[in-house]
Amino acid sequence: MQIRSFVSLPANFRPVDVLSFFSRDALGTSERVLGQTIQKAFMHEGSAAYIEVKLTKKRATYLMELHKVPKNKNALTSLAKKIVTHILGLSQPVEDMEKKFGRHPAMARLLKANSGLRVPQSVTVWEALVSAVIGQQVSVSAATSMRVKFINGLGLRHASGLVCFPGPREVMGSNIAQLATYGLSRQKAQTIMDLAIQVVDGVLLLDYWREHFDYEKVTDALISIKGIGWWTVNYALLRGYSYLNGSLHGDAAVRRNLQRLLNLEESPSALETEKFLSQFEPYRALIAAHLWALKRLDGY
Predict the structure, then answer these.
(1) Which of 40, 110, 180, 207 has the most CB atoms around it within 10 Å of its CB?
(2) Which pLDDT value is given to residue 73?
(3) Are 215 and 230 in contact (CB under 8 A)?
(4) Which three-class secondary structure state does DSSP give residue 205?
(5) Quick check: bond before 10 cis, omega within 30?
């Protein structure tokens, strides 16, 4: 079944952010960008699904395709709009943040240069969380390579040729040794397996928490799992729940670009970075995203 519609885009919407996020994998394994169009395969209720979003100046026109025909078409229409709004970050109060901190002595120039910056989102919280585990303490290229192998190894292929990011049940159908063949350390493989088991058993209510977000409940549940630390939690909350106040002070790129922004001789420590970001509550993660984008000022 297919749903076609569109959502309006704000005047300050920046296509470059979302297009860059969905083109990280040059092979286009699970998602690809063709011009101004994003194509993404994902799991929905155990079946392969597909969404395509074409960005124009004023709107995002989309097509969503599900293998299973739902009983309630209105629910599918609502789901499609919700996914598009979510992945484009359209609900993020970026204008409020820029108004509040637009005159900050250290950040003013960066906020002005990247005005309208939003943090693109993963289609599912599960994908954001597992991607965060895969990306722990490795380079972006290494994380992307492992992610591609993980997707190809366990994911369902959609008719579009794209492969869905494997869901919890696909992970549970494998084992630690198989997960390790994708380049994952045994600890990362075990953590992903533990996450899958807790999702399937109803301990981790990832989708429910998207509609009923409670920071304390979510973080308490995640941080209790071996192999998940605060960087993983805050990155997953940023990419999965659009939670903009997580402190990414342990992120290497954030610290490196903060050094550049402040013209420091050495990279600031995690504690120093945490102190700097603390000025920007409740938008600490959104400020970190501006630091990620710092190199764009020089054309990189």
Answers:
(1) 40
(2) 72
(3) no
(4) coil
(5) no
Token output for 272: 């120093």
Which residues make beta-bridge pairs with 47? 44
Distance separating alpha carbons of residues 164 and 105, to the nearest angstrom:
44
**CA–CA dist 289, 300 (Å, integer):** 16
On the 0-12 / 13-18 / 19+ scale of CB atoms within 10 A, 298 is exposed
Coil vs helix vs strand at 51: strand
200 DSSP 8-state letter: H
User: Hey, what domains does the chain have and what are their CATH numbers?
Assistant: 2-91 (3.30.310.20), 125-241 (1.10.340.30)
- The secondary structure element, H or E, covering residue 47 is strand 47-55
Q: Are strands 59-66 and 2-8 parallel, antiparallel or unpaired?
A: antiparallel
Reported residue count of the chain is 300
| Per-residue confidence (pLDDT) for residue 68, from 0 to 100 | 67
Identify any residues that bridge with 42 across adjacent strands, giving them in sequence order: 49
Spatial distance between the Cα atoms of 218 and 209, rounded to a whole number of angstroms: 7
89 within 8 A of 21, measured Cβ to Cβ = no
pTM: 0.93
Quick one: CA dihedral 279, 129, 257, 13, positive or negative?
negative
Structure token digits, residue 93: 């109060």
Q: State the first-to-last Cα distance of the chain, in angstroms, to the nearest integer.
A: 41
Secondary structure class of 7 (helix, strand, coil): strand
- Region for 224 from its dihedrals, namely left if φ exceeds 0, alpha if ψ lies in -120 to 50, beta otherwise: alpha
CA-CA distance, 41 to 49, in Å (whole number)? 6
Q: Which residues of 54-78 are buried (b: 16+ CB within 10 A; e: fewer)?
A: bbeeeebebbbbbeeeeeeeeebee
Q: What is residue 298's predicted lDDT score, i.e. its pLDDT?
A: 43
CB 125 within 8 A of CB 211: no
The closest alpha carbon to 235, from 108, 135, 107, belongs to 135
pLDDT on residue 297: 47
* SS3 label, residue 207: helix
